[in-house]
Design brief:
Layout: H1 5-14, E1 52-56, E2 61-64, E3 68-73, E4 76-86, E5 91-96, E6 107-114, E7 119-128, H2 131-136, E8 154-157
Antiparallel strand pairs: 1-2, 1-8, 2-3, 3-4, 4-5, 5-6, 6-7, 7-8
């Protein structure tokens, strides 16, 4: 299955478990040199510039924080733990939470695009075997209709 609407639908369907705390498995041992307000000691991932709570075009709630992207819908919740954030290229790599119903322990790539009035996102990878494979996925913000793995990008509304 390709990313985009089917990926989002799999994510929505995948969220069949009750919301639970998920600590992920990312271990952070380096020293913090960035200027953000997170409490970790991470130099390889900055705070994501789109942190906040949003509603997507399909009714799911996205809670984006310094360390994770959580998606909750009527079907349940999934958590994705950031391993890298690149605000220059507007994407993040994340390890899928161990308690996610689908693709647990694999890797995702989230791309975002702000056209000046609307924020869009694409989960361009959702089942990559490792961070490098997730990083290799891509999305085309120049084509909001089919640039997310041949599917449309979704809006994120605060």
């Amino acid at each position: 299955m390709r990313a985009g609407i089917p990926g989002l639908m799999a994510l929505v369907i995948a969220c069949g478990e009750a919301a639970e705390s998920d600590t992920g498995s990312v271990t952070d041992t380096d020293t913090d040199t960035d200027a953000d307000t997170d409490t970790d000691t991470d130099t390889d991932a900055d705070s994501i510039e789109i942190a906040g709570v949003y509603l997507d075009a399909y009714g799911a709630t996205h809670t984006i924080g310094d360390t994770s992207w959580e998606i909750a819908s009527a079907y349940g919740a999934s958590t994705y733990w950031f391993t890298a954030v690149d605000n220059e290229t507007d994407h993040a790599i994340a390890e899928n939470g161990a308690k996610n119903l689908y693709s647990a322990g694999l890797y995702s790539r989230f791309d975002w695009f702000d056209d000046g009035g609307e924020l869009y996102f694409c989960q361009s990878a959702y089942d990559a075997p490792d961070p490098a494979a997730a990083e290799a996925a891509s999305a085309d913000p120049g084509d909001l209709a089919t640039g997310c793995g041949a599917f449309p990008w979704s809006t994120l509304t605060p």
